[in-house]
Amino acid sequence: MTSDAAPSNTAGAVTDLVPLLPDELAALLAEAGEPPYRGRQVFAWVHARRATSIDAMTDLPKALRAWLGTRCLVSRIEPVEVLSSADGTRKLLFDDGAGGLYNSVIMPSPDRVTLCISSQVGCRMACGFCLTGCMRFRRNLTAAEIAGQVLAAARILDAEGAVPEPAHREAERIRSGSQERGAGRSERSWNLRDATVGVPATPEPPGGARRSGTGAGPAPGGPQPGRTRPAHVSNVVFMGMGEPLDNFDEVVRAVRLITHREGLRVAPRRTTVSTVGLLPEMRRFLEAGTGASLALSLCATTDEVRSRVVPASRRYPLDAVVDALRGMPLPHGHSYTIEYQLIPGVGASVEDARRLSRMLSLFPNKVNLIPFNPWPGAPFREPTPAEVEAFRAVLAEKHHRVTVRWSRGRDIGAACGQLGGGERRGPEGGETR
Ligand code: SF4
User: Fold this and answer.
1) CA pair distance 378, 387, nearest whole angstrom
2) Does 210 score more than 90 pLDDT?
3) How many angstroms separate the CA atoms of 356 and 353, rounded?
4) pLDDT at 276
5) Which of 9, 120, 270, 330 has the most beta carbons within 10 angstroms of its beta carbon?
6) Dihedral of CA 243/201/407/363: which sign?
7) Distance CA 239, CA 118 (A)
8) Taking the domains of the chain in order of start, what are their residue ranges?
9) Gap from CA of 34 to ligand 1 centroid (Å)
């Protein structure tokens, strides 16, 4: 890990600027006699312009930079390793500074770049289908480390520069005659207010996964000729290591940082916090008013099976979860996302699909079916395509909004449920699996 400081808000008497929101920065800078707008200015430097030092904030008065330099720093995390999948997915491994590792996964697709991030090193929930759940819990990540994962991914995408525009968009532009209007606009003239669309689809050599040092630098082959636009992190999902709502305050702060209009500008509705179903914290999260979406992770349709595979769920039986979801006021237009792990022998039968359908009819939702991704030593097998389709068909027949999410990055251990590597091992710092 590269870090300018301890990732907490203060390191000794030195304050880290990364986890502070504009109002908090303004209050800090008021001590130097600065006007309130400086808070937004410094926030934008850190989160929108990715400054990694106070010296880089060149439009601040020299005296203010000197004042900040004696009291503050900009923490930075960088991956110690980047694994690249044949399907364009990249897994970033971060060193937590105490022998632990945590992960993020960049998943490009034609109209977005989704980043899956971690909120803890290890996890206390011990879900049986998840490699992280088999590790010991090490610690909560700080808001600076959580938002820092998004900043690190953004820096990688920044360094790669513009990427080819999707062919269909290029064709649309030509058809609409808008090509001329856009001509002459340099790649660098795009800024965060432009549409957040990314198409990195990093060209990979045939033959699968690729390792690199830090992932910074241009994609192999570099941007293609023709019309281009920059790649940005457009969607963030808290589905990496850890139960986000078990690290409530830091996660809420991180969501506010990531979604802030003066910063990374990830849309709140494109930011999803996934939980095994910690009901009190789900209520608190909705009350916090971040605007982010909540997803509920399920893998079974009876309490007996669910509590066996997800021990933390014993406190919140399915009836209580459904009642709570019916009763909790959602922001206008929102629905819950159900991330349903399809695990043969646990909750992947047609009978399970029927029970799930009855539950789903009671509150607003959409369902993602996630076929189980095996890992070495996993006690379950992955479902066959026929089993997945049979389950999906039952839900579709009942008019539920259902999508099968075949995980990406399986060849680099980046698929859903495969994230581990909580402890560094040996001089190479390889994963624990
Ligand atoms: S699925 Fe999520 S909550 Fe369960 S053990 Fe894995 S990381 Fe923790």
Assistant:
1) 19
2) no
3) 5
4) 94
5) 120
6) positive
7) 7
8) 10-73, 81-158+232-412
9) 44
CATH class of 81-158+232-412: alpha beta
Measured in angstroms, how far is the CA atom of residue 127 from the centroid of ligand 1?
A: 6
Could you give the CA distance from residue 382 to residue 397 in angstroms, rounded to a whole number?
Answer: 24
Instruction: Give 162's pLDDT tier (boundaries 50, 70, 90).
Output: low
Q: How far is CA 165 from the centre of its chain?
A: 23
Report the alpha-carbon distance of residue 86 to residue 433 in Å, rounded: 20
Q: Which residue has the higher pLDDT, 137 or 221?
A: 137
Using a 6 Å cutoff on CB, does residue 414 contact ligand 1? no
Find the farthest-apart pair of alpha carbons in the chain and give their distance in angstroms, rounded.
69
What is the per-residue pLDDT for 419?
Answer: 67
Q: Is 242 in the pocket of ligand 1 (CB under 6 A)?
A: yes
User: Best of 103, 117, 130 to mutate for ligand 1, by most ligand atoms within 8 A of CB?
Assistant: 130
Q: Assign 431 a pLDDT band (cuts: 50, 70, 90).
A: very low
Residue 349, class by beta-carbon neighbours within 10 Å (0-12 exposed, 13-18 middle, 19+ buried)? middle
10-73 CATH fold: DNA polymerase; domain 1 (1.10.150)
- Indicate which atom in ligand 1 lies nearest the CA of residue 242: 7
pLDDT top residue among 401 and 161: 401
Torsion of CA 383, 386, 387, 392, to 10 degrees: 120
- For residue 125, report the distance from its CA to the centre of ligand 1, in Å: 6
Using most ligand atoms within 8 A of CB, pick from 132, 135, 309, 370 the residue to mutate for ligand 1: 132
> pTM for the whole thing?
0.81
CA nearest neighbour of 117 among 130, 103, 98, 138: 103
Residue 345 CA to ligand 1 center (angstroms) comes to: 19
More confident position, 241 or 1: 241
Q: What is the mean pLDDT of the chain?
A: 81
